[in-house]
Every structure is written in C-alpha cells, then in structure tokens.
C-alpha cells in the first residue's frame, strides 16, 4: 500500500514521467552529401527505422530529458541516381558485411522551445562500417498529435569510420572524393 501511495505522489509531483514509445514511420529520410574533384554528390535513404522512448511533455521546457533511442537504416538502402556510384559507395561502406548504419542516443537536453519546436542538443554514438564514434549534434523535435518528428544534421569524416574515400577510375581519369560528408535527417516517429 505504501509503494502505491508513494508512486502516486511522485507522479502527481511530476518527479516520474511516463515515457511513450515511438517507432520510425514512412516519411523519414536520411541524406549524405559530399564533394569530389568531379562533382558534388548526394545519396538518400527513406528506410530509417528505430525506436524512441521519451515523454513528449519533457520537450516543453529547457533542461535535460530522459530518453533512449536506437535509429538504424540498411546500408544498401542508400541510393543515388547512378548505379555505378551506388556500387562504389556500397563497397566503400562494406555493405556486404556491415548491413546497417546505427545511432544510439546517450543524452538529450532541450536548449529552448519556440512555437512547439524543441531545439535540443543530443549526444550519442554512430556506427558505420563496424566502427563506432561518439557525436554531439543539434536536433529539433516537433510534436503533431501522436507523431514526433526529429530533424538534424552533422558532419563526419569517412576515415573516422575506417572508410577510405572512394577514388574510382573513369575513362577521363580518377575521381578523388573528399573525406567530409554531411548527414541530414528527418526521422518521423509515431506512438
């Protein structure tokens, strides 16, 4: 009886907040952009899945938020409009062996809230090509009914994940790909 009363008091005082489970839904997209000595390039995936555990009410005010998330996409789902480029990219990402690209959330803090959009800083780890790196990036959370959309962008270096920037041979010479890539994402989730 005392445990039930204590739990009820903690919930009413706001010390415990119920977390909802949000799952990745269609409408999500991840884009990788880079540059080379020949042209800028872009690849995309609309197969962004995963799970987010958070109390949406915690996104209404500045401060740390208790949340967990695991986001993943199938490496081969990254596509351009060029079959040869996809082959080179999938080989560089070791897609035969490393089937997924993953992100695990380790920390989230709301910096400010404007018009129902929570501007946050998130910390976590990215796993690409079997190598894991810690990252920190700005993200926004937008709530619309039972949907929660997370948007963000960050820059990474391929070599940080053991990826040698591709340098395929062309009839006119070789392509030199720059090490830096920009990742932009919009992850649509629903309860």
Structure write-up:
The chain is mainly beta. It has a single domain, classed as Beta Barrel (Lipocalin), CATH 2.40.128.110. The chain has two helices and 13 strands, in the order αββββββαβββββββ. The strands form two sheets. The protein has an eight-stranded antiparallel beta barrel. Strands 11-12 form a two-stranded antiparallel sheet. A hairpin with a 6-residue loop joins β2 and β3. The chain is elongated and about 60 Å long. The chain starts with a helix and ends with a strand.
> Could you say how many structural domains there are in total?
1
The overall pLDDT average reads 89
Q: Would you tell me which CATH topology applies?
A: Lipocalin
Rg of Cα set: 20 Å
| Second-tier CATH architecture | Beta Barrel
Shape: elongated
Distance between the termini: 32 Å
Number of strands: 13
Q: Specify the helix fraction band.
A: 10-25%
Q: How much β-strand is present in the residues?
A: over 45%
Element string (H = helix, E = strand): HEEEEEEHEEEEEEE
Low-confidence stretches: 1-16
What is the CATH level 1 assignment?
Mainly Beta
Looking at CATH, the homologous superfamily is Lipid/polyisoprenoid-binding, YceI-like
Major sheet strand order: 1-4-6-7-8-9-10-13
């Amino acid at each position: 009886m005392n445990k039930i009363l204590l739990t009820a008091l903690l919930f009413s005082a706001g010390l415990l907040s119920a977390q909802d489970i949000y799952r990745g839904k269609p409408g999500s997209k991840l884009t990788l952009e880079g540059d080379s000595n020949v042209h800028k390039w872009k690849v995309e995936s609309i197969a962004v899945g995963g799970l987010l555990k958070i109390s949406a009410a915690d996104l209404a005010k500045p401060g740390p938020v208790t949340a967990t998330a695991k986001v993943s996409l199938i490496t081969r789902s990254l596509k351009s409009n060029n079959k040869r480029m996809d082959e080179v990219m999938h080989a560089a990402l070791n897609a035969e062996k490393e089937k997924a690209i993953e992100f695990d959330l380790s920390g989230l803090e709301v910096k400010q809230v404007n018009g129902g959009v929570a501007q946050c800083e998130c910390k976590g780890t990215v796993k690409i090509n079997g190598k894991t790196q810690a990252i920190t990036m700005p993200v926004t959370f937008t709530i619309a009914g039972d949907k929660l959309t997370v948007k963000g962008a960050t820059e990474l270096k391929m070599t940080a994940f053991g990826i040698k920037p591709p340098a395929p041979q062309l009839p006119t010479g070789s392509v030199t790909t720059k090490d830096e890539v920009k990742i932009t994402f919009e992850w649509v989730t629903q309860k």
